Amino acid sequence: MKPLALGLLASLFISAAHAEPTATGDLGLVIERATGTVVLVDQSDRAALARIEGLGDLSHASLVYSPDERFAYVFGRDGGLTKVDIVTRTIANRVVQAGNAIGGAISDDGKLVAVSNYEPGGVRIFDADTLEMVADIPTDSKTIGLVDAPGRRFVFTMWDTGETWIADMSGAEPRITRIENMGDRPYDALITANGRTYITGLFGEDGLTALDLWSDTPEPIRVLPGYGRGQEEMPVYKMPHLEGWALTGSEFVLPAVGHHEVLWVDAATLTETGRTQTHGQPVFAMARPDGRQVWVNFAHPLNDTIQVIDTVTKEIIHEFKPGPAVLHMEFTPRGHEVWLSVRDAGKIMIYDTQTFEKLGEIDADSPSGIFFTARAHRTGL
Amino acid sequence: MHKFAALMVVAGVAHAGGVTDPDALARLVHQDCGSCHGLTLKGGLGPDLRPESLDHYSVDVLRDVILDGVPGTPMPPWRPLITTEEAEWIARYLLKPETP
């Protein structure tokens, strides 16, 4: 009797899902890194809607959305590129495109999906509709910091050789511009929301390197060279991520490497405007969408803590411990809530960003990245 | 199946001596070493740590790399966070995941 009832319920649910149009604007996906699954979540209801299985090794996985917010392209560590249909809650297509991948991006027109790979090193570009490969760009290096840029371009950087390449996909064949001397072992990069400035963080030296993508011939611009000079270098148990950037009027905030601080940089002049000492090695320093707060999480073993920095005073205004292993944060598009993945608690925790009150939690199996569909409309995400 | 795996790990610990929580150590290996070496240890920004890639190293060498890191590379010293016995257990676990 029970299985029958459950079966009936399931079929009712499925037919209902197909009968009703599905609005996806307040949905999101959460990576469950250990089980190769993603959880479809509803921001407004603060609830999980479905679990989609069969995505392979999702350690360090990320995803981007199609412009219509229907499809997610999930980039797995095992080289898997999976196209998830969040309306039907199924896998629409999946290819294993390399042996060891690190991230991806979608072109400004939504037609191309690019994946950056460690093994074999380089970038492969796929038709977003069919997942057929349209370009293969070997780089002879582990390739990091892949982002989309306006003009149907992708920008990415080489860990081993310290070069940044711009692949212009507006013509029939990719046109590659190579920029040398970006620095010693770039580990990640970001592009500003207006698509103008690309910044790589460096592991091998204190400093960052920027490119002005509005320039016809972009040249490396050193940012904060030697920022840790005179300070003891501390071990880095997890590499920071560069994603999401703060604007308080006109500043970026970026995590330092090997130093327990975040760095403030004037967006126009790329000079230092301040530093804020933090609880540990920052992993993500992410701005609330209005830019008034920056939320920071930390590397192992201090990854149970979050600090919130006021961007006007650059002071820490709140610190709390959501639970063991806070891996990622995602703001609602207008910033009223932040969702945290607390891996070892098996929860996504939801907080009000004004009162810091906890609003709810959702069960998830070793959750890592949280991605709301509003990312579909943002350059670099 | 899970119970069996747990028993194997406990047996390994008895052999190692001095390591109190092998489950936590195995978790550390996959989750935190995995940040760079991949959750399945097949490599990422850091190299492949699967047994077939490491089998030309001795336990002692691996233990020392874990404790002191590799200067000039992103491999950090773990000495501030774990004991020598724990590093040795991890070295054995990397070489022989079934019977560390």
Largest interface: A-B, 26 and 19 residues
Strand content of chain B: under 5%
Instruction: Look at the helices and sheets of chain B and give the structural class.
Output: mainly alpha
Q: What form of chain B results from the Cα inertia axes? A: globular
- Count every helix of chain A, treating DSSP H or I runs of 4 or more residues as helices: 1
Tally of DSSP helical segments of chain B: 5
Oligomer category: heterodimer
Instruction: Indicate the structural class of chain A.
Output: mainly beta
Major β-sheet annotation of chain A: 4 strands, antiparallel
Characterization of the model:
- The complex is a heterodimer of chains A (381) and B (100).
- Chain A is mainly β and 381 residues long.
- Chain A has a domain at 66-229: 7 Propeller (Methylamine Dehydrogenase, Chain H).
- Chain A has one helix and 31 strands.
- Chain A has one helix at 2-19, and strands spanning 27-32, 37-42, 47-52, 62-65, 71-75, 80-85, 90-96, 100-106, 112-119, 121-127, 133-138, 143-149, 153-158, 164-168, 175-179, 186-191, 197-202, 208-212, 221-223, 251-255, 261-266, 272-277, 282-287, 293-298, 306-310, 316-320, 326-331, 337-342, 347-352, 358-363, 367-372.
- Chain A has a four-stranded antiparallel beta sheet with strand order 3-2-1-31, with no helix packed on it.
- In chain A, strand 25 (306-310) and strand 26 (316-320) form a beta hairpin.
- The longest helix of chain A has 18 residues, at 2-19.
- Chain A starts with a helix and ends in a 9-residue tail after the last strand.
- In chain A, 49% of the residues are buried.
- The mean pLDDT of chain A is 92.
- Chain B is an all-alpha fold and 100 residues long.
- Chain B has one domain (2-95): Cytochrome c-like domain (Cytochrome Bc1 Complex, Chain D, domain 2, Orthogonal Bundle), CATH 1.10.760.10.
- Helices cover 57% and strands 0% of the residues of chain B.
- Chain B contains five helices and no strands.
- The longest helix of chain B has 16 residues, at 22-37.
- The two termini of chain B are 18 Å apart.
- The chains are: A mainly beta (381), B mainly alpha (100).
- Chains A and B meet through loops of A and helix 2 of B.
